[in-house]
Design brief:
With 107 residues, the protein is mainly beta. It has one domain. It is built from 1 helix and 7 strands, in the order H-E-E-E-E-E-E-E. Strands 1, 2, 3, 4, 5, 6 and 7 form a 7-stranded antiparallel beta sheet that branches. The longest helix is centred in the first third of the chain and has 4 residues. The two termini are 31 Å apart.
């Protein structure tokens, strides 16, 4: 499913309604965001500290945020490791913990 040759067949991941991302910062504050789309970017084979190889899939996703009656969309990169069933968000996410930003729920 995650092999490189299959990435060219389908790149857009179907996201259904009510798909949310919950992020916790170092103080334990939790923010919830609506994921608008996920695009498969690449499939990598990585090696951990114990020299175990595993596949990881890189996605580019858009997070939908409502801020003071404005709808904002921010793009972030996500890494998913199927063997460990773990998701990681890449890049600077400090802007997501702004006190003026709150969750936008769409029906």
């Amino acid at each position: 499913m995650y092999e490189r040759y299959q990435l060219y067949k389908t790149k857009l991941v179907d996201i259904t309604d009510n798909t949310y991302l919950k992020i916790s910062n170092c103080r334990g504050d939790i923010q919830t965001f609506y994921l608008e789309e996920m695009l498969v970017m690449d499939c990598l084979v990585e090696t951990d500290d114990q020299h175990n190889e595993y596949q990881s899939v890189i996605y580019r996703g858009k997070i939908k945020i409502e801020e003071a009656s404005d709808i904002k969309r921010e793009t972030y990169f996500f890494k998913y490791i199927p063997v460990k069933e773990q998701w990681y968000i890449c890049g600077d996410i400090s802007g997501l913990f702004n006190k003026n930003i709150y969750t936008f729920f769409s029906n």
